[in-house]
Amino acid sequence: MSVIEVKDITKHYLLGTQTVEALRGVSFGIDKGEFIAIMGPSGSGKSTLMNIIGCLDSPTGGTYHLNNQEVSTLDGDELAGIRNKEIGFVFQNFHLLARNSALDNVMLPLKYAGVEKSDQIIRAKEVLSQVGLSSRIDHQPSELSGGQQQRVAIARALVNNPSIIFADEPTGNLDSQTGHDVMELFHNLNNQGQTIILITHENEVAAEAQRTIFIKDGLIESDIQKEEL
Amino acid sequence: MIIQESISTALDSIRANLLRSLLTTIAIVIGTASVIAMVGIGSSAQKAIDDSITNVSARTISVYPSRGRGKQKINSSPLSISDADALIKDQEINWRVSPEIRGSKTLKYKNESISISVIGARENYLSIQGYEIEAGEFFSSRDDLARKRVAVLGSGVGTELKTSSKALIGKEVDLGGVTFKIIGAFKSEGASGWSNPDDIIYIPLLTASDRVFGRDRVDSIRVEVPNTYSPEEAMISIERVLRREHDIGPGEENNFRINDWSQFTDLRKQATAIFSTLIIGIAGISLLVGGIGVMNIMLVSVTERTREIGLRKALGASQQAILLQFIIEAVALCIIGGVVGVIFGSALYFIITIFQDWSFTIPFSAIFGSVAFSACVGLFFGIWPARKAAQLDPAVALRYE
């Protein structure tokens, strides 16, 4: 069953008087439960593609079905709703709110989803224990190590039971040991059936995925399953 | 749910930049503080004026000689003691009549010599003015008829003579070359309007007329009208009597002026209203400036927190949720400023009432009004920065450095 179905996606930007074609017709599908890496050099259109799949941006042309729902035509607030329910983001620099506790950070998507406060707390504690941070729920980000902060971010990504976890260079700001631990966590989540998309430029990280899509000059250069590597 | 979250986020953000937030709200603080202080002081002053006017002359009408104006050549002494006597004789209304002769003389006691205001009056002056005797007594009508050289001192006169008014009772002083015996001293009355009754020496009317000033011209006649008559009725009666006394033919103008104290009150009220309007105007400008300051700081805040906004949007915040968060922050800033202003303004008002010996009443409507107005300022000036935040592109905002 495919979670993501992308057909002939194009994206044009207007830079001054010049039109930049960041994506020139990209098509692929991602099935539920896949662990996939999207790679590409800077300027390849990788970030643009990520923004579109992450529902942060809309394509100029083509269609994008997320869970069989056409999302390329939705407006800003509708996309916000989709992001809230369907997508969990994990960023390179964690993006935690500095003055909020780990628990509050994890509760944030639930607040925007309109979940009851008491249910927010129960659910947030649940995912925090899932990432192994039960004992740190009242700590602020500054009181946590980089690895712990990224775990909080992953818990936040998981809290709304999203269809996809979107991880943009999740180990980029971590040392190799904690980076390895974080990847371990992703593998565990994937084994439980969670669809995970990694955006990375590191071969080492991409090698953890079962499938790798290479983007170059706004087109898919290759789409390789691990067995074929 | 979202509102609750927005409020706590807004307060967090204000707390995180406490100094900046407080500096931003200074103009709002000044604006509301001045509104509260001025409204409070204005109402207390008004009350004090009303009280004093009610005390002294709820229904006191004063008659003054006209000041000669241009072609209208009037004789130089249009009001005399006989006019007052005519008013007393006319008992259509059972009013009380108090003619006064006023002037300035030198008062000497031992080696001290001061220039002093003198009032020559009848025995009813004391009760019409509502003054109280501290020691000794006020002169009687017999003292007046006998042109006795007796005097009563305002409470401050003795001090100017390097002693006290009370201590001077029974002593003899020299007033403009005439020797007077001091028979009483007033309690301190405090200044009201232009004159200070504490700094005046009071002598019987006829003594003043015959022995001190050498004239029967009086400077004013006060008429105290019983409550059962309206001031207008009384004024008409006074005018009738005096026109007859002065032999003024039909169509000719009065050569005297009749002042109803309520006119004076109206004037005061008008002046107070103009003053209040002015202050409210200044406060309004101050709040406007404050609002612009708040808008400025909110724009800075939006820029500083671009990535946070991007993150919130990535996690599913709608435009409305972001808009609300920043508007609430601006409104909260202004309300905090307003509340601080209320505290400062009330304190200032309270201190002034203590010094002026006025009554202190918490100006609830002004407090509510100015805080509500501050909130509106925040709402108005918060909208633009909040819209800017709400419309940020999440993909761009997330990568903002």
From TrEMBL, chain A:
GO terms for cellular component: plasma membrane; transmembrane transporter complex. One of its GO terms (molecular function) is ATP hydrolysis activity. It holds the Pfam family ABC_tran. InterPro entries: AAA+_ATPase, ABC_transporter-like_ATP-bd, ABC_transporter-like_CS, ABC_transpr_LolD-like, MacB-like_ATP-bd, P-loop_NTPase. SMART domains: AAA (SM00382). Keywords: ATP-binding, Nucleotide-binding, Transport. Residues 4-229 form the ABC transporter domain. Belongs to the ABC transporter superfamily. Macrolide exporter (TC 3.A.1.122) family. This is ABC transporter ATP-binding protein.
Automatic annotation (TrEMBL), chain B:
One of its GO terms (cellular component) is plasma membrane. Residues 282-394 form the ABC3 transporter permease C-terminal domain. It comes from the Bacteria. Residues 21-240 form the MacB-like periplasmic core domain. One of its GO terms (molecular function) is transmembrane transporter activity. It is found in: Cell membrane. The chain crosses the membrane at residues 21-42, 273-300, 321-352, 364-384. This is MacB protein. Belongs to the ABC-4 integral membrane protein family. It holds the Pfam family FtsX. The keyword Cell membrane applies. It is a multi-pass membrane protein. Its main location: membrane. Keywords: Cell membrane, Membrane, Transmembrane, Transmembrane helix.
